[in-house]
Amino acid sequence: MTLAIRRATTADIPAILTLVRRVVPLMNTAGNYQWSADYPNEAVFQQDIIQQHLWVAELDGQLVGLAALTNDQDAEYAQADWDVSEKAVVTHRLAVEPAAQGQGVAAALLQKAEDLARVQGLHVLRVDTNSENQATQRLFPKLGYRFAGEITLAFRPGLRFFCYEKRLS
């Protein structure tokens, strides 16, 4: 099996939306309402692609994961235990095809975030996840991220998010 990470293109949109349609019901069943039928949507991913922020993972040529890797830190990040004025690579919209979970896809996408940080001369990686997302809460510490507190996000009212940060040497 060959896992490849590359920038997403508009040609990937149908496969991205299919992946999201498969992931959202599983998230919701687990009590994780970070994503829904209307978020993230095609317009969100189109914007990610235009800004060259969206990366996809392909396993043997099939799209099995995605992540938006940006320098954007939501204003609410100031609630976390970190210096929000410090520039970072921030992982948003991390998702893995259910059938490919547990095969290192998320770790590979997070490694791409680390690679981008190094290229940009940055030493900090950040990510947030829904308080009900047990899988990412297990994964992030395994990859060297530390828990940096709990926040709320204005655009997802009623939900709680856990923040994680990794410092590169």
Automatic annotation (TrEMBL):
InterPro entries: Acyl_CoA_acyltransferase, Bact_Acetyltransf, GNAT_dom. GO terms for molecular function: acyltransferase activity, transferring groups other than amino-acyl groups. Gene3D superfamilies: 3.40.630.30. The keyword Amino-acid biosynthesis does not apply. Keywords: Acyltransferase, Transferase. Residues 3-169 form the N-acetyltransferase domain. It comes from the Bacteria. PANTHER family: AMINOALKYLPHOSPHONATE N-ACETYLTRANSFERASE-RELATED, AMINOALKYLPHOSPHONATE N-ACETYLTRANSFERASE-RELATED-RELATED. This is GNAT family N-acetyltransferase. It comes from Hymenobacter crusticola.
